[in-house]
């Protein structure tokens, strides 16, 4: 549970957030006392239906960041996870009507629709305001009330009195009704399409932990490191199902997603406790993937991919996709999925809204800071968008200047490479631990990814074991593709240059390893300023190569020099690499993980006789 917050004070956070939104859109107005952010429609050519929403804060960008032309007219903000009062809501209606009056001061508003999530506090306080306003002739017939209940997780038998919760699907109600109101539709028309959307929504959430309310003590998270909870509410309410992964990690999306889609789409016959909306095969839908606050955009896009796969397997037809942060639970690490059932293409004209109308209302771009980008097209098959790359090395023919080595020697070299790969994979936990202390924690995983890629390449028989140059060119390609980042670039350059060095140095059956390695190191130094001692991988690499080439030692002595250089990085001030920005000494006494990774690799290659290979 992330419990640190960058704020001035919990008591001023809500109002400061609202004032910040005013800076984003100078057309907005804010009543600080009532905490009502609203958009005055004074410049509209005719009066439009006003949309008011709100609830507890902590769900940003809902609700206040959706205030603006083409979306909401006003949003009422309570304290974090607490409904605003009826008085605040009444003030919102007054402000909307006052600022929507014509220039002669006569109130001719087209009416107000209050949209509220189905939570007890919100229903009571927004309902109280609506009924209190109905006692005045000005508002008697012009204020309507639309609750949204889209949650499908909680079974019917548990919600007989309170009904389903309102979740992120409420945002689609805002968008569709807001754009229709902006186009000049009547209050009846806006309310009717809002009811259609509400009745055809299904939402479910999943999270790996709870959110933390600023100003409260850090609680004990009930979920283990390998657990997720399905059906968690946006106020930290517990879910209905927990799933546990393996190896200390949560279950993969491929296991989670079918459960979620089944809960969303199951019919009443298939699941008597749910089945709220009928999603038959070939039904047209809108999919919304919503970040509950603590999920990275990297993960969210992967969620979208897995969701579309599973939905397509159900036979549903996705007409529009929305993916982003719409309704959060502060910093909850999780996401929610919402499906909106669209009318059939034949439906409309007396039977409810047409599909074309709903799609056009969704596609319109509002002037509200919280609304994200949406494609105005249905998704297409990924096969139409994926381009297959052909690597340079696979297009190039070999131009090796030296004769192929013997099969026996080739097997020895490939075997040494395999030993090095397996050693790096085995060392991953220790390298990761070291890098967690000294850096950003990815060194072990990066080297493991490269090692696994090389092993897969050797098993694929896509390269010849008889031509050393081709072997190391292929390994350089794996380092570039699988490792990435600075270390991937360094390894890739080194192995590419090693292939060059092997070609330049060898004209007989004997391979001049010291020359080839020195050539590779020299080439590497043209692309990096790191020189020993630098607390980087070049420290042991330089010690090993120069011991062989300059000092003419055997490989076992060179290995010992490399080990000494790596151990010397303990407490050393970094001079290159990302660790430079840490500003301190090397990782509280830890060796540089990249440097030790080189030692792990070299140690596996150099066998007990102190040989790097039988061709040395």
UniProtKB/TrEMBL annotation:
Catalytic activity: dihydroxyacetone + ATP = dihydroxyacetone phosphate + ADP + H(+); D-glyceraldehyde + ATP = D-glyceraldehyde 3-phosphate + ADP + H(+)
Biological process according to GO: glycerol catabolic process
Domain of life: Eukaryota
SUPFAM superfamilies in the record: DAK1/DegV-like, DhaL-like
Any Pfam family: Dak1
InterPro entries, alphabetized: DhaK_ATP (IPR012734), DhaK_dom (IPR004006), DhaL_dom (IPR004007), DhaL_dom_sf (IPR036117), Dihydroxyacetone_Kinase (IPR050861)
Active-site residues annotated for this sequence: 235
One annotated GO molecular function: glycerone kinase activity
Keyword Plastid (UniProt): no
Matching PANTHER family: DIHYDROXYACETONE KINASE 1, TRIOKINASE/FMN CYCLASE
Family: Belongs to the dihydroxyacetone kinase (DAK) family.
Protein name in UniProt: Dak1 domain-containing protein
């Amino acid at each position: 549970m992330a419990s640190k917050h960058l704020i001035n004070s919990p008591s001023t956070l809500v109002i400061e957030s609202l004032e910040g939104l005013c800076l984003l859109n100078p057309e907005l107005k804010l009543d600080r006392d009532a905490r009502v952010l609203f958009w005055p429609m004074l410049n509209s050519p005719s009066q439009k239906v006003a949309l008011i929403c709100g609830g507890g804060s902590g769900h940003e960008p809902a609700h206040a960041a959706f205030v603006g032309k083409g979306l909401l007219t006003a949003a009422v903000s309570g304290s974090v996870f607490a409904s605003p009062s009826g008085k605040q809501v009444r003030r919102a209606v007054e402000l909307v009507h006052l600022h929507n009056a014509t220039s002669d001061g006569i109130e001719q508003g087209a009416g107000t629709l209050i949209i509220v999530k189905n939570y007890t506090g919100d229903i009571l306080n927004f309902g109280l305001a609506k009924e209190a306003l109905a006692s005045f002739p000005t508002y008697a017939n012009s204020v309507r009330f639309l609750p949204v209940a889209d949650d499908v997780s909680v079974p019917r038998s548990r919600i007989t009195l309170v009904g389903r919760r309102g979740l992120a699907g409420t945002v689609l109600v805002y968008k569709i009704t807001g754009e229709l109101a902006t186009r000049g539709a009547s209050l009846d028309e806006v309310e009717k399409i809002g009811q259609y959307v509400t009745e055809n929504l299904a939402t479910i959430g999943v999270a790996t932990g709870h959110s933390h309310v600023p100003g409260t003590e850090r609680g004990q998270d009930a979920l283990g490191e390998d657990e997720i909870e399905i059906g968690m509410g946006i106020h930290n309410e517990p879910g209905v199902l927990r799933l546990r992964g393996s190896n200390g990690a949560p279950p993969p999306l491929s296991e989670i997603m079918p459960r979620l889609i089944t809960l969303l789409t199951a019919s009443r016959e298939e699941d008597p406790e749910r089945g709220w909306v009928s999603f038959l095969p070939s039904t047209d839908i809108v999919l919304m993937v919503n970040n509950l606050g603590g999920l990275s955009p990297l993960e969210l896009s992967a969620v979208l991919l897995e969701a579309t796969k599973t939905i397509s397997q159900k036979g549903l037809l996705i007409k529009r996709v929305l993916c982003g942060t719409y309704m959060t639970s502060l910093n909850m690490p999780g996401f929610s999925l919402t499906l909106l059932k669209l009318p059939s293409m034949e439906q409309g004209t007396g039977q409810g809204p047409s599909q074309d109308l709903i799609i056009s209302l969704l596609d319109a771009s509002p002037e509200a800071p919280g609304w994200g980008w949406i494609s105005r097209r249905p998704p297409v098959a990924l096969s139409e968008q994926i381009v297959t790359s052909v690597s340079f090395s696979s297009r190039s023919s070999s131009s090796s200047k030296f004769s192929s080595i013997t099969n026996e020697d080739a097997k020895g070299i490939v075997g040494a490479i395999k030993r090095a790969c397996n050693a790096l994979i085995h060392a991953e936990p220790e390298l990761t631990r070291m890098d967690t202390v000294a850096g950003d924690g990815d060194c072990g995983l990066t080297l493991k990814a490269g090692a696994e890629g090389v092993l897969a390449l050797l098993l694929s028989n896509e390269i010849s074991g008889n031509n050393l140059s081709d072997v190391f060119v292929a390994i350089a390609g794996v380092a570039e593709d699988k490792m990435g980042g600075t270390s991937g670039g360094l390894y890739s350059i080194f192995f590419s240059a090693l292939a060059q060095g092997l070609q330049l140095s060898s004209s007989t059956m004997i391979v001049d390893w010291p020359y080839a390695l020195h050539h590779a190191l020299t080439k590497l130094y043209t692309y990096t300023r790191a020189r020993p001692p630098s607390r980087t991988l070049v420290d042991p690499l330089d010690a090993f190569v120069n011991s062989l080439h300059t000092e003419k030692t055997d490989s076992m002595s060179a290995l010992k020099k490399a080990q000494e250089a790596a151990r010397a990085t303990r407490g050393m001030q970094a001079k290159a690499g990302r660790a430079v920005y840490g500003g301190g000494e090397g990782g509280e006494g830890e060796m540089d993980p990249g440097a030790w990774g080189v030692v792990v690799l070299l140690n596996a290659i150099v066998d007990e006789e102190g040989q790097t290979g039988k061709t040395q």
